[in-house]
Design a protein that fits this description.
The chain is of the alpha/beta class. Strands 11, 12, 13, 14, 15, 16, 17 and 18 form an eight-stranded mixed beta sheet that branches. The chain has a six-stranded parallel beta sheet with strand order 3-2-6-7-1-8, with helices on both faces. Strands 4-5 form a two-stranded parallel sheet. Helix 3 (77-91) links the parallel strand 2 (70-73) and strand 3. The radius of gyration is 27 Å and the shape is globular. The protein binds a DNA duplex (15 and 10 nucleotides) through residues 75-77, 102-105, 129, 208, 211-212, 243, 272-273, 275-276, 374-377, 380, 400, 434-440, 481, 557-560, 580-583, 602, 604, 606-607, 616, 620, 643-644.
Length: 675
DNA sequence: CGCGGAGACCTTTTT
DNA sequence: GGTCTCCGCG
């Protein structure tokens, strides 16, 4: 059944005040922003990719295109938000119809509107990785016929299923290409996948991959909706195109099929997400799929000094699989990058601390400094040293704010009330009650389902209002262990109170704390104060969302780099920033320290097994180098304490460092000075 | 069946 | 060092 699409009157063209930043090449930007679609912009690191896209959006609006005809897809929600702010500033106008965000967040918005078409209810909840794994685990248990210890674990399985979905390949083919040792398991894995899919559907939950896959299917299977969105999103702009996977590029192609107004921007040298299914060949083959595409290269770098750029060029030159491009610096000369050899990781940490303090003396803010590393645990010693020296730092840690146990416990209350079919949230809640564990939760879930399906058997419930969760809970509380009866009654009371205020997530959090979670925290965790503070913050954070649904979507979809900024405690005190290289993508800092450049750590020993991933490691190193504007320090320890076994391991200097010609770097050898 | 203690095992990157 | 798993006790 076709839908009506209301055409709004064209707005008169607005006055555009693009203020080309002084250092930028104005002609170049004008050429790119006015480029006819389809267009492919190959833009090197620091060449102002984001700025180009921002101007492009502003340009389109200036041409009289209504904001709701534009879809802006970026790598993080934060990037989209910043670009949209910038556009609003440039135009001094209302651009509220403009949609911008990650593929996942846009998928979420669209799927909520049409969930009925794919057999979901609009209040579906989103599973994070951990939840998805847990659900997968119980599917494995059901399919597994005998106790086979070599059966692939939920971790591996989650990766396989995700990769298959994102590359749009059948599972058997994915196994053949990437996990050949599991090829004989294809049939079992496929049946687990089938069960996993149906369990998600009954629970009315989606995982990350579903947000893309179901979005794609929705458009593919519903001609009217396809047409609706093809007409609505008349201009598509995609940032970081080198990191899109097959599913994402197919989505773009599907929506763009009618008008072909696509502008993609990316840099194949910065492709660092292939393990997630990203395929930088999407960029290479773009001109094949869009024969009319104009290709535009930006090889000027506005960010870094020529010395840093020379190093970047030297590093990436060893890679064979790429568009050839050579970045030229637009800035004046600076200091050579420095390679620092350290004895131990602690000495390396002291080096960073001391240098950071010196730079602060020289007038740099700590905000201008960043320490980058391959994996989260590489920053361990540095964190200790920074804390010891009292230097403020912020860190994008491995554990995300929203994935910590206490945040998830509280969120489970809100999620379950919004979506009572959410099995995982229910079980999580029930297991908080003393005396109820994994098996008990399974049984109580079955009991709850039964009360839900047959409310007539339980006179206390009102059949016309199946959402009276608290009374259903009371009804099936009989099946809870006797010693848990009091806690169970308390639980159902809390739920009934929460149902009253189910559209006020902030008040819900406070109520959950008052109703006993506070006490639970106190008894369970030694760092009870911190966790309580987190929840306090979460409650404040929730205030900004008009609906519970938006709050929950936000919890599931924002990355930790974004939450860092969102935390209300963001006092203006300058902090040195610690981050993995992956999470520093798209950012820039005056001074960058890249630490732990030891062979086996960076490049990581796992990646050296395959030649393509060895090239990707080098691209990652390239990304790290090109984050620096003025100064760059590359350091490595010779000895590193091996966590746990308390024996030290001698490290080899990273092969990335030995490959660098001596004349383009300075070498510092650390000596211990006396006070 | 829940829970606490003892041992094994692992350490890539994330929307 | 921290998490997950298994085992035996209550």
């Amino acid at each position: 059944m076709p839908r009506d699409y209301v055409l709004r009157p064209f707005r008169p063209p607005v006055e555009l005040h693009i203020n080309y930043a002084g250092e930028l090449n104005r002609q170049q930007y004008e050429a790119v922003t006015a480029l006819p679609s389809p267009a492919l912009v190959i833009a090197g690191a620091g060449s102002g990719k984001t700025r180009t896209l921002t101007y492009r959006v502003a340009y389109l609006l200036e041409q009289g295109i209504p904001p709701d005809r534009i879809l802006l897809l970026t790598f993080t929600n934060k990037a989209a938000k910043e670009m949209m702010h910038r556009v609003a500033d440039l135009l001094a106008g209302d651009i509220s119809g403009l949609w911008g965000g990650t593929f996942h967040s846009i998928g979420n918005r669209i799927l909520r509107r049409h969930s009925d078409r794919i057999g979901f209810k609009p209040e579906f909840t989103i599973l994070d990785r951990e939840d998805a794994k847990e659900l997968l685990k119980s599917c494995i248990e059901e399919v597994k016929t005998n106790k086979d210890p070599r059966f692939p674990k939920a971790d591996v399985l989650a990766d396989i299923l995700s990769l298959a979905s994102n590359t749009r390949r059948p599972i058997a083919e994915t196994l053949h290409e990437e996990y050949d040792h599991l090829e004989s398991r294809a049939a079992e894995i496929t049946s687990i996948e089938t069960m996993f899919t149906s369990r998600k559907r009954t629970a009315n939950v989606m995982d990350f991959d579903d947000l893309l896959l179901l979005w794609f299917r929705l458009l593919q299977d519903n001609q009217d909706l396809l047409e609706l969105y093809q007409r609505r999103f008349q201009f598509l702009l995609i940032d970081e195109y080198q990191d899109t996977n097959k599913l994402q590029s197919d989505l773009i192609d599907l929506i763009a099929d009618r008008h072909k107004n696509v502008m993609v921007v990316g840099d194949d040298s910065q492709s660092i997400y292939s393990w997630r299914g990203a395929n930088f060949r999407n960029i290479l083959h773009f001109p094949d799929r869009y024969p009319d595409a104009r290709v535009y290269k930006i090889e000027t770098n506005y960010r870094s000094t020529p010395e840093i750029l020379q190093l970047a060029n030297a590093v990436i030159a060893s890679n064979t699989n790429q568009f050839s491009k050579r970045l030229t610096a637009s800035r004046g000369s600076g200091a050579k990058p420095v390679v620092v050899a350290c004895e131990t990781a602690f000495e390396q940490a002291r080096f960073v601390v001391q240098r950071a303090l010196e730079l602060r003396e020289e007038g740099k803010s700590l905000n201008d400094l960043a320490v980058l590393y391959r994996s989260h645990f590489h920053a361990l010693e540095l964190q200790l040293e920074l804390t010891r020296s009292g230097i403020p730092f912020s860190i994008t840690s491995g554990i995300r704010f929203f994935e910590q146990a206490h945040v998830k416990d509280v969120a489970a209350h809100i999620k379950w009330i919004a979506n009572p079919t959410d099995e995982l949230s229910y079980k999580r809640l029930v297991r908080l009650i003393p005396g109820i564990g994994g098996k008990g939760a399974d049984k109580l879930w079955a009991a709850f389902r039964e009360c839900w399906n047959h409310p007539a058997d339980h006179p206390s419930t009102d059949a016309t209002r199946p959402k009276e969760l608290a009374s259903l809970l009371q009804a099936c509380g009989k099946r809870a262990p006797k010693k848990s009866a009091v806690a169970w009654a308390q639980f159902s009371t809390t739920i009934s109170q929460l149902e009253e205020i189910s559209e006020k997530p902030s008040s819900m959090i406070r109520l959950i704390l008052d109703a006993g979670y506070d006490e639970y925290l106190r008894n369970t965790y030694s760092n009870y104060r911190n966790r309580l503070e987190d929840l306090d913050q979460l409650s404040n954070y929730a205030l900004q969302f008009p609906t519970t649904e938006e709050f929950l979507s936000q919890l599931a979809l924002v990355s930790n780099a974004e939450t860092d900024e969102e935390k209300p405690s963001s006092e203006s005190e300058p902090r040195i920033h610690l981050s993995t290289i992956h999470q520093a993508k798209g950012l820039e800092f005056s001074v960058a320290f890249v630490i732990m450049l030891c062979d086996g750590l960076f490049p990581s020993s796992r990646s050296l097994e395959r030649s393509e991933s060895a090239e990707e490691e080098r691209r990652l190193f390239y990304v790290a180098i090109t984050r620096a504007k003025d100064e760059l320090y590359l350091s490595y320890p010779l000895i590193r304490l091996n966590a746990g076994y308390s024996n030290s391991v001698v490290q080899q200097k990273s092969r990335f460092l030995t490959d660098i010609p001596d004349e383009i770097i300075d070498t510092w050898n650390l000596r211990s000075g006396s006070y």
